[in-house]
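Appendix B, record 7
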Amino acid sequence: MKIKVYCEVTCQMAMAGVCLIVQGCSRDDLSDLHAYVAEVKGRPKGTIAALPEIQVAEPFMFRPHQVRDPFEPDESLQEPEEVRVETGIKPDTLRPREELETFELDALRMVGTVRQWGVVWALVETKEGAIHRVKVGNYMGNNYGKIVNIVDNQIELVELVADSTGAWRERKATVMMADKAGKAP
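Structure tokens (predicted):
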């Protein structure tokens, strides 16, 4: 019932609109329209601005022999510098693991240093926001990283990593001081 009433009202409104349009078109007095057209035609003609000068672009010559092959490994993305390769080195799996060895190094950030009784301690923050104090000789990171030096803006470590042959190798790693926004530079 509601749809029928709605359709009737819509049809009545459409018919009223058509009647108004037809009545407006039947008007014979177009003098104001003719006056406006005459006024527009009587306006002074404007000038067209000159086109800007076309600048010639230098052609680019692609020389494929001068670029790196995208299917070859990039030398700039090589693994971090290895300190030395020794046969027989391996991690001490019998020593108790320290708490910061459960984190990846990129999940840790240095937030400061403290000097106490001649010992330099680095303050390290985890992703959870916990602050830990470490010194030279402590371990951190999943790769048996032993802290070998602490300076004001970074912690230097030597990690033990297994290569493809299963031999253990030492490599240098650093944890940088975080900036004021909380990100490592």
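Remarks on this record: The CA atoms of residues 14 and 84 lie 90 Å apart. The mean pLDDT is 79.
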